[in-house]
Description:
CATH topology of the largest domain: Tetracycline Repressor, domain 2
CATH superfamily of the largest domain: Tetracycline Repressor, domain 2
Radius of gyration: 20 Å
Strand content: under 5%
Distance between the termini: 81 Å
Number of strands: 0
Number of helices: 10
Low-confidence stretches: 1-15, 193-200
CATH architecture of the largest domain: Orthogonal Bundle
CATH class of the largest domain: Mainly Alpha
Shape: globular
Mean pLDDT: 84
Amino acid sequence: MAPPTASTGASAYHHGDLRRSLLSTAVEVIRSDGVAAISLRDLARRAEVSHAAPAHHFKDKAGLLTAIATEGFELLAAALDATPTDSPHRLRELGVGYVEFALAHPAHFEVMFQARLLHSDAPELTAAKERASLALRSGVENPTDRTSASDTRRAGLAAWSLAHGFATLQLSGSLPTLDDDPADTFRTLVDRRPFQGHPH
Length: 200
């Protein structure tokens, strides 16, 4: 048998696994130490590959974070799409799905909305954001409703703001513990009268 000619890291790089490995490692670093702790040189050291290897896949730090944000929006879209379409409280449950995504993927969530750190015009990021946006809008758009497009957008923005704000506060440890499951707390908040609009 011929002796190996490449290290484990180089082999993974050759077979295309290094990109996935670098992304997973970056997510772990962000989750434990925050996005400011990320550097391509450190990721290369952790993966035991050359300093140039991460740049081959991501070009720069912004490229790496853009890939993480893109993956995050894809995961978010999948989570929202999994909400039953026949639920009588679909918009609320979309919000629950949003919150549950954020709590399950805090590193992605931290990166996704920091446009200054990303290549915001990257086509793959734009497409992933649109998929997530369409999934969220599905909870407020009703083809039989005469509500104006402007009002529909405002309703979607209000729903997004509530879910995003709740998730952000929960992740920062700023919310009191009211239920064993944060999703139940979110449902309770949404179901309270102040969030139901004014009767006509």
